[in-house]
Design brief:
It is a single chain. Helix 10 runs antiparallel to helix 13, helix 15 packs across helix 18 and helix 25 crosses helix 26. This protein folds into 2 domains: 264 residues, Alpha/Beta hydrolase fold, catalytic domain (Rossmann fold); 283 residues, Cytosolic phospholipase A2 catalytic domain, CATH 3.40.1090.10. It starts with 8 loop residues before the first strand and ends with a helix. It is elongated. Strands 10, 11, 12, 13, 14, 15, 16 and 17 form an 8-stranded mixed β-sheet that branches. It has a 7-stranded mixed β-sheet with strand order 1-5-2-6-7-8-9, sandwiched between helices. A hairpin with a 2-residue loop joins strand 3 and strand 4. Helices cover 43% and strands 13% of the residues. It has 637 residues and is α/β, with parallel strands linked by helices. This is Related to calcium-independent phospholipase A2.
Length: 637
C-alpha cells in the first residue's frame, strides 16, 4: 500500500500567519497527476498564495501533495490514515488543533478530502484525535468533483477517455492505468454515499464546474454540471469558463473566473471562520427556541418577500406530510418584525394572521391602489425617474394607503376583532394594532419619530417594559401601517399622539437587529433558535459625485442600506449566539434591488425574479434548510 509523505504539507503563508492566532486552516488538495503548486498555478501565478492570502490574511493557507492518489483511491476502503495523521500533527504544532478547517478539493482530490470526513467520523473511529479533527471541519469547496453515487455504469464506459484527458499536462508516465482509474471511480461512488449518509452534505459547501471540454475545446465536458452537484441537498453550484484540468488555474488577479471564485469564498468564509458555528445541523429537542422573521422594506418589492415566505410555507407542508394541519406563518414564528412594506407584511402575517396566498393577493391589490401617481407633471416625473427621489413633496397619497389598509383589515378580520367591533360599535378604522389575544404571534413595525434617530417599535402586544407601551396603545392598525410606510419623497409623514413619524427605513430598512433585540427583551428566558431575514434585493451604492441626482441617490442608498445590518449579524460578537443557532438571509439580486420602490407596473418582473431566486441553488438550499428548522422546532414545541 502506498504511503503518504509526512513532508507533503506545504504552508503558503510561511511564518507570517502560521501562528496559533490563525482563524482558520484552508487546506487544498490537487486532483490525479497534480501537485501542491503546479495544479493551482498558471505562468507563475499561484492564486492560493497570491489571492487567498491577501483576501483572508488571518487564515493559514496549506497545499497538500499527494502523488500516490490513484493507488490510494483504487483500494477499498482508501487508506488515507497517513494523510490524516499528517494533518493532525501539523495542527498540533503551534497549538492550532481547534482552528476550523475549510477544504478545497480539485477533481479526485475532493473525493480524498471527503474520505477524511468519513474516516474521522465518530461512528467510524474511537481515536480521540480523529474525532477532534472531525469536529472542526467546517466546509468544502469542490472544483469539478463527482458527487454521484448511483450510476456505476458510466465509470466503466468512459474511463479511457476520462483518463486520457486527465493525463494531459500531468507529470510522469501515466499510461496503462485505466484499470486503476476504474476502481478509483467505484471508490468515489462509495465515498460519496458514505459522506452523504454521515451528514457531510450538511456542512457548508460550494461547488464549481467546468464549461469547456478537455484542452479547452467546446466538445463535451469531462465532469458535467449534474455530476458536480450534490445529490441530496442543493448548494451553490457555479460555472467556470475552463476545462477540467485547468479548473483551478487562474492566469492573473484580473481573471474573471478567479473573481467569481473569490466572490463566492467571501460570503462562504464569513460564516465558516467562526469556530463555534455548526452550520445547517438539525435542531435537537433540547435546543428548541424562538423562531423570528424579519422583513425588509422595499415598496412594491415586498411582493418578492411574500412570495418567498409562501414557498417556505409550501415546503413546511411538504415536510409535515399528507394530512398535516394547514399552518400559516403565525403558527411557526414567535415574533415578526418589518419596516415599511415589510411592516405591512408583518401586520398581515402577524396581527391579522393571514395565509400567505391571501397575503399575496391583498398585497398586489394594495400596491396597485396605493402606488398610483399623485402628480403627473412631465418634468417632475422625468426628474424623479432620473434621481430616484422627489425633493420636498410626497409623490403618493397617504389617504389612499389608509383606505387600502383599512379595506385589507376589514376583509381579513379575526373572529375576536369582529366580536369586539360588534360589541363596541366601532369601525375598522378604530381597530388598534395592540391586541389582547394571548395566543397571537407578536408583531411590530419600525418607524422613526421626527427629530429622533432611534427606531420606534410599534407593537401588537404589551411589552414587558410598560413605559415603552404607552405610545403603542395609541396606534390604530392603519396608523401603524402609515407610520412605517412614510418614506420621505414617497408618502407624507403621519402624526399620532402629537408625534410625527417617518418610514423606519431611514434607520433600519433591514430590521433584523431590531427583531433580535426585541425578542431578547420580550422573551428573556428563551433562547433564539432560528432567525429568517427576507430582503427585497441587493443594492449598489451610487456615485456621490455624479451631480445632484447622483448625490441624492447616494444619500438614499446610504439611508436604505440593508447589507450593513446583515453583515453585523454575521460578524458582530454580540450575535455569535444567533449565528451558532441558525441565521438565514433570503435576498434577491441587484436586478431586483434596482427596481424603483413604486414601480407597480413591474410587479410581473418582481414575480419572475422571485421564481428565479427560488429555482436557484441558493434559493432551494435556503428554503429547504429554513423549512426543516421550522418543522423540527414545531414538532418539539
Amino acid at each position: 500500500m502506498a504511503s503518504y509523505s509526512s513532508r507533503a504539507i506545504h504552508s503558503l503563508t510561511g511564518g507570517i500567519n502560521a501562528t496559533d492566532q490563525a482563524s482558520a486552516d484552508i487546506i487544498a488538495l490537487h486532483g490525479l497527476g497534480g501537485d501542491w503548486n503546479r495544479t493551482w498555478s498558471s505562468f507563475g501565478y499561484c492564486w492560493l498564495k497570491h489571492a487567498l492570502i491577501p483576501k483572508f490574511p488571518s487564515c493559514r493557507i496549506l497545499s497538500l501533495n499527494y502523488p500516490d492518489m490513484l493507488s490510494i483511491l483504487s483500494a477499498h476502503p482508501p487508506d488515507i490514515h497517513g494523510l490524516i495523521h499528517d494533518i493532525i500533527r501539523d495542527r498540533r504544532q503551534g497549538n492550532r488543533s481547534k482552528s476550523p478547517i475549510i477544504f478545497l478539493g480539485h477533481s479526485f482530490g475532493g473525493t480524498v478530502l471527503k474520505q477524511v470526513y468519513v474516516a474521522t467520523h465518530p461512528s467510524n473511529t474511537d481515536d480521540a484525535d480523529y474525532k477532534a479533527l472531525h469536529s472542526h471541519i467546517r466546509g468544502y469547496v469542490f472544483f469539478g468533483t463527482i458527487h454521484k453515487d448511483r450510476d456505476m455504469s458510466r465509470a466503466k464506459l468512459e474511463v479511457p477517455e476520462f483518463w486520457r484527458a486527465l493525463s494531459r499536462g500531468a507529470s510522469g508516465t501515466l499510461g496503462g492505468h485505466s484499470h486503476e482509474l476504474e476502481k478509483a471511480m467505484y471508490t468515489t461512488f462509495r465515498v460519496n454515499h458514505a459522506f452523504r449518509r454521515l451528514g457531510g452534505e450538511n456542512l457548508l459547501i460550494n461547488c464549481f464546474y467546468e464549461t469547456k471540454g478537455p484542452g479547452g475545446l467546446s466538445r463535451r465536458v469531462l465532469i458535467t454540471q449534474e455530476e458536480s452537484t450534490l445529490v441530496a441537498r442543493p448548494v451553490p453550484t457555479m460555472p467556470l469558463d475552463l476545462d477540467h484540468q485547468s479548473l483551478v488555474c487562474f492566469k492573473s488577479p484580473r481573471d474573471e473566473n478567479l473573481a467569481r471564485v473569490l466572490d463566492a469564498l467571501d460570503s462562504f468564509m464569513i460564516r465558516a471562520m467562526d469556530v463555534e458555528i455548526r452550520l445547517h445541523r438539525p435542531i435537537a429537542p433540547e435546543s428548541r427556541g424562538l423562531c423570528l422573521l424579519s422583513l425588509d422594506g422595499g415598496g412594491v418589492k415586498g411582493l418578492f418577500s411574500i412570495i418567498i415566505i409562501d414557498r417556505l410555507m409550501q415546503e413546511t407542508r411538504r415536510l409535515e406530510g399528507p394530512g398535516a394541519e394547514h399552518k400559516k406563518p403565525c403558527d411557526y414564528f414567535d415574533l415578526i418584525g418589518g419596516t415599511s412594506t415589510g411592516g405591512l407584511l408583518a401586520i398581515m402575517l402577524g396581527r391579522l394572521q393571514m395565509d400567505t396566498q391571501l397575503c399575496i393577493q391583498a398585497y398586489k391589490s394594495l400596491s396597485k391602489e396605493v402606488f398610483s401617481r399623485k402628480f403627473k407633471v412631465p418634468f417632475l416625473e422625468s426628474f424623479r425617474k432620473a434621481s430616484n427621489v422627489a425633493l420636498s413633496w410626497s409623490w403618493f397619497d397617504g389617504d389612499k394607503l389608509k383606505e387600502a389598509v383599512c379595506r385589507t383589515v376589514k376583509e381579513n378580520l379575526l373572529p375576536s376583532d369582529s366580536a369586539m367591533l360588534r360589541q363596541s360599535g366601532c369601525t375598522v378604522e378604530d381597530l388598534t394594532l395592540i391586541t389582547d389575544m394571548k395566543s397571537a404571534t407578536y408583531s411590530f413595525v419600525c418607524a422613526v419619530p421626527k427629530y429622533e434617530e432611534k427606531v420606534k417599535r410599534i407593537r401588537s402586544y404589551e411589552p414587558l417594559d410598560q413605559q415603552a407601551n404607552a405610545p403603542a396603545e395609541r396606534f390604530k392598525i392603519w396608523e401603524a401601517a402609515r407610520a412605517t410606510s412614510a418614506a420621505p419623497m414617497y408618502f407624507p409623514h403621519i402624526e399620532a399622539g402629537g408625534v410625527s413619524y417617518f418610514d423606519g427605513g431611514l434607520e433600519s430598512n433591514n430590521p433584523v437587529i431590531e427583531v433580535i433585540e426585541e425578542a431578547k427583551q420580550e422573551f428573556p428566558d428563551d433562547k433564539i433558535s432560528t432567525v429568517i431575514s427576507v430582503g427585497t434585493g441587493a443594492y449598489q451604492a451610487s456615485d456621490a459625485s455624479a451631480g445632484l441626482a447622483g448625490f441624492m441617490n447616494y444619500m438614499i442608498n446610504m439611508a436604505t442600506s440593508t447589507e450593513k445590518h446583515h453583515r453585523a449579524v454575521l460578524e458582530d460578537p454580540r450575535f455569535a449566539d444567533i449565528r451558532k443557532e441558525g441565521y438565514f438571509r433570503l435576498n434577491g439580486t441587484l436586478e431586483l434591488g434596482a427596481i424603483d420602490l413604486a414601480a407597480v407596473e413591474r410587479m410581473d418582473e418582481i414575480e419572475r425574479l422571485a421564481e428565479a431566486y427560488l429555482s436557484s441553488n441558493e434559493g432551494q438550499q435556503q428554503i429547504g434548510m429554513c423549512a426543516e428548522r421550522l418543522v423540527e422546532r414545531a414538532r418539539h414545541h
